[in-house]
Amino acid sequence: MDITTIISVIGDYINRFISFFNAESSITSSLAEALLVLLSAFILWLIIKRTLTILRNKAVHFRCIQVHEELFAIARKMAGLLLVWLVGVVWIELFHLTMIERMFHAVFIIVAATPVKSFLLIILEALEGNLAKRTETDLDNIVIDLLNKFSGAIVYATAATIALDVLGVNVMPFIAGAGVMGVAVGFAAKDTLSNLIAGILLIIDRPFEIGDRIEVWSAPAGSASWGDVVDIGLRATRIKTTDNIVVIIPNNEIMTRDIVNYTIISSSIRVRVNIGIAYDADMAKAKALIVQAAQSADWISAEPAPKVMVRDFGESSVSLQLRVWIKDARKRMDTISFITDTVKTLFDENGIEIPFPKRDITIVDRQIR
């Protein structure tokens, strides 16, 4: 069998294969044009790749390019996908492959969603660094956070909807069915959805940020009752107490409680320490000793100055209260402990009595006649 016969047999099989897909053009001319298109696309790809490499080398001095070098990888991927799509469109026209035309376009849309999502994440990161952090309002930060969390789902859902529409599938029944299913799932998972909604509200309202120190009302009995926020999720918030215990609290429970945040405005807070002295003690001297104890701690602010107030008269003592400002809210309990110990020592050295409950008992001797 000579070479002419072999080419004739191969051409006959190719013609049969093409005719299966409803092709109508001549196989010889169509193959030549198809190979020419493929070669042109390959040459164009080499030119684009080389051009992007040159641009990348010249753009290394730009900070944005240094931070987001993956922009060129995304550009190469998008250029490659676009060339594949163009070759596919031309081949479909050449061979009249009408049966697979819609499917080809739908698959291209789904595949192109991945680089689109990567590019969108880079844009959001750039907006967060260059725009959101320069504004005083938190609204743009919130929107960008939400888009970062849901960008993938949004891009792929949009791509799937467009692909189904290209295939000629009516997506409205699916959307309506999804709505009905969403209602059913909402009733079945109302607690989970409640936590998700509460998580979004926490992101919008921002009663605390990661790193803030807040009260933990659900801490184990006998353990620390406050801690630092380490994560704010859509379902739950994680708080690490000063005992190094991580407490995970559902967001819907947080939204129904009073939130005590010690560091939302600044790290400085005022601490109150209650101290009692005997009625016959020298009150002026006792106040001076309490202030002296406060001034001996370097983390207690000198301005505003420590102040001692008389609160009330108890059954066996005069109740005083020391009010001091500390520079770090996380030293609140250390401050209370230090002041209490130091005041006790100073009172003992200077004869100031710390009272304890006393009862006078009168015994009346009555003789029975």
Nutshell version of this structure?
The chain is α+β, with helices and mostly antiparallel strands and 369 residues long.
Keywords summarizing the entry:
three-stranded antiparallel sheet, 12% strand, SH3 type barrels, single chain, 369 residues, alpha+beta, Alpha-Beta Plaits
Structural write-up:
The structure is a single chain. With 369 residues, the protein is α+β, with helices and mostly antiparallel strands. The chain folds into three domains: 3-176, no CATH class; 207-255, SH3 type barrels, CATH 2.30.30.60; 269-350, Alpha-Beta Plaits (2-Layer Sandwich), CATH 3.30.70.100. Helix content is 57%, strand content 12%. It contains eleven helices and seven strands. It has helices at residues 3-20, 27-58, 63-67, 70-95, 98-130, 139-166, 172-188, 190-205, 251-255, 283-295, 332-350, and strands at residues 213-215, 226-232, 236-241, 246-250, 269-277, 307-313, 318-326. Strands 1-2-3-4 form a four-stranded antiparallel sheet. Strand 2 and strand 3 form a beta hairpin. Helix 10 (283-295) packs across helix 11 (332-350). The chain is elongated, with a radius of gyration of 38 Å. The termini are far apart. 13% of the residues are buried. Residues 20-25 have low confidence and may be disordered.
